[in-house]
Design goal:
The structure is a single chain. With 154 residues, the protein is α/β, with parallel strands linked by helices. Helix content is 38%, strand content 24%. The protein is built from six helices and seven strands. Strands 1, 2, 3, 4, 5, 6 and 7 form a seven-stranded mixed β-sheet that branches. Residues 147-154 have low confidence and may be disordered.
Length: 154
């Protein structure tokens, strides 16, 4: 089973609230993103899936919100929850290790994708994409569900 099938399988067999990384209120991510982007510019949520973070970003009025996930099923959950507001978000289905280009952003938010990349080549591709995507002066927030960390990117 490849990564795409694996993550789709999870979202087909479990409710969004049953996955171990579910947060009813993504408070830490919201606070970090607001701090990193006081101008409420462009945010990219890597591995955003069915997270409720996108709801908070749309409600806050960011200039541009993009959510990337390998599972279209996860993104469909988020889109259904947002209803008409889903049209305000740029949704991308894809594997972070296979995407050639993403829209430029001021804040790159990743709550666990990098953590799951165990192959050195996948990590290199990820870092290369970060470097090409995050604008000068932007921020990269890489978080793990159990330990949150912030890193300035550029």
């Amino acid at each position: 089973m490849d990564r795409h099938e694996h993550w789709n399988s999870i979202y087909q067999t479990k409710a969004v609230t049953e996955v171990s990384w579910f947060e009813s209120e993504p408070q830490i991510s919201v606070e970090l993103i607001n701090t990193a982007s006081f101008s409420h510019g462009r945010v990219l949520d890597v591995g955003g899936g069915a997270s409720r973070l996108v709801d908070r970003l749309v409600a806050t009025g960011f200039e541009s919100v993009t959510v990337l996930d390998i599972s279209e099923i996860a993104l469909e959950h988020a889109q259904a929850r947002l209803g008409a507001q889903a049209a305000q978000v740029h949704w991308i289905v894809g594997d972070i290790c296979q995407i050639g280009q993403l829209p430029p952003c001021d804040v790159w938010h990743d709550r666990a994708v990098f953590h799951f990349l165990t192959e050195p080549n996948d990590r290199r591709k990820y870092v290369d994409l970060v470097t090409r995507t995050v604008r000068i002066g932007g921020h990269v927030l890489t978080l793990r569900p159990s330990a949150h960390t912030t890193v300035n990117a550029r």
